[in-house]
Specification:
disordered N terminus, 7 helices, Rossmann fold, about 240 residues, alpha/beta
């Protein structure tokens, strides 16, 4: 990740950066070629009550609809929800608060690039476990924790091989990152801490997938060549315990 920014405080309301986010997503081929295919492959079903946790402008919802599902989206930004509602019902909320859902009414919940924006990850796992029925699923796609700590980054060996510096990986930490003219706070958690919080919330891990940068990302940013074997994206699927 980039080093912490200085004077600009992180945004508290995503409506202020919604236009920037829409431009970023529309111009990012990684979503179509890597992230959304990963989401499709991790989702165990597109049927029943499928909730997009932090739906943004609705890319994930639209993909679920294309596969025959009827998703419900939730997000903090009114502007992004205004776009996402074309794919299904939407609710404005601040995650991890899901009080608008009753216990055990969700078949599948999923989030894409949301968990490391939440300060309360334990609350996220507890609330999703409350609303997802026993035997239901939770899918999370997030920046790989190896990529997010302070001082992590690529280094080039004398023979030209690109290696990865772990930085302060083992330390939970935050960093403030640019988002257009504003900033957002990212939360780094080591993988072990993330999985332990999920288990404590009542989730049983079914599948964990790690991916490096795909061809679309390399084509867009040729400077990433040589980093294909470095994990950048983490995909996880859990089953809700009884």
């Amino acid at each position: 990740m980039l080093p912490a920014m200085g004077s600009t405080p992180p945004v508290d309301d995503w409506d202020s950066i919604a236009p920037w986010w829409r431009r970023e997503v529309e111009d990012d081929p990684v979503y179509d070629h890597q992230i959304l295919p990963m989401l499709e492959s991790l989702l165990p079903t597109f049927e029943g009550v499928v909730v997009d946790l932090g739906c943004g402008e609705g890319q994930g919802m639209r993909r679920v609809v294309e596969r025959g599902g009827r998703p419900i989206g939730c997000d903090l930004s009114r502007e992004l929800l205004g776009v996402a509602r074309a794919a299904g019902p939407v609710v404005r909320c601040r995650l991890p608060d899901l009080r608008w859902l009753r216990d055990g009414v969700v078949d599948v919940g999923y989030s894409v690039y949301v968990l490391d924006l939440l300060g309360d990850a334990a609350g996220f796992f507890a609330e999703t476990a409350r609303v997802v029925r026993p035997g239901g699923a939770l899918v999370v796609i997030v920046n790989h924790p190896a990529y997010t700590p302070h001082e992590a980054g690529p280094i080039v060996d004398v023979d030209g091989e690109v290696l990865w510096r772990w930085g302060t990986y083992l330390e939970p930490q935050t960093s403030v990152q640019p988002a257009g003219d504003a900033t957002v706070t990212f939360h780094h958690r080591p993988l072990g801490a993330l999985l332990t919080m999920a288990a404590a919330g009542g989730w049983s891990l079914v599948e964990m997938r790690e991916e490096g940068l795909g061809a679309a990302a390399i084509a867009r940013e040729p400077g990433y060549r040589g980093q294909e074997g470095i994990p950048r994206v983490l995909g996880l699927r859990w089953r809700r315990l009884s």
